[in-house]
Design goal:
mainly alpha, 2 strands, two-stranded antiparallel ribbon, 149 residues, Cytochrome Bc1 Complex, Chain D, domain 2, 6 helices
């Protein structure tokens, strides 16, 4: 057995390692790409105009500027990926979300951060509640880690 590390053996280690990690990367990409369609719920969003309208409200009111949704967004206000479940789930959870949004004061509380009053109509409140319920049913691989978000 030779005690020196030759240029030829270094080249073989480099090429072998490169081939191994390229194959590993390709296998992980393939596995991820085959898992995503099983977890993807975009077709449900397209089939439900109420949820799509709620998503548009979420975007137009820049809710993600303060809240996070499934870990994405600002951390100024609570995570909303499971807010409907946090308030009891189903119709009761949606009603609580709507009441919370509706009950915001017209002016903020001095010295405290608070959610603004958006003056949403009953239809818009239903849409945003349906969107948040839709989000709570997405397979997020156990994110957020607890019910409090």
């Amino acid at each position: 057995m030779s005690t020196s590390f030759t240029t030829s053996s270094a080249r073989n280690v480099f090429y072998g390692g490169t081939a191994f990690f390229v194959l590993l990367f390709a296998a992980l990409v393939f596995q991820t790409e085959s898992d995503i369609p099983q977890r993807d719920r975009r077709e449900m969003l397209a089939q439900n105009p109420q949820v799509a309208a709620g998503k548009k409200l979420w975007e137009n009111n820049n809710c993600i500027g303060c809240h996070s949704l499934l870990g994405e967004g600002a951390y100024f206000a609570p995570e909303l990926g499971n807010v409907v479940d946090r308030f009891g789930g189903g119709e009761d959870g949606k009603a609580t979300v709507k009441a919370f949004i509706q009950g915001r004061p017209a002016e903020g509380i001095p010295g405290r951060r608070s959610m603004p009053q958006f003056n949403l109509s009953e239809k818009q409140l239903d849409e945003i509640a349906d969107f948040l319920e839709y989000v709570s049913k997405i397979d997020t691989a156990k994110w957020p880690p607890n019910i409090q978000g």
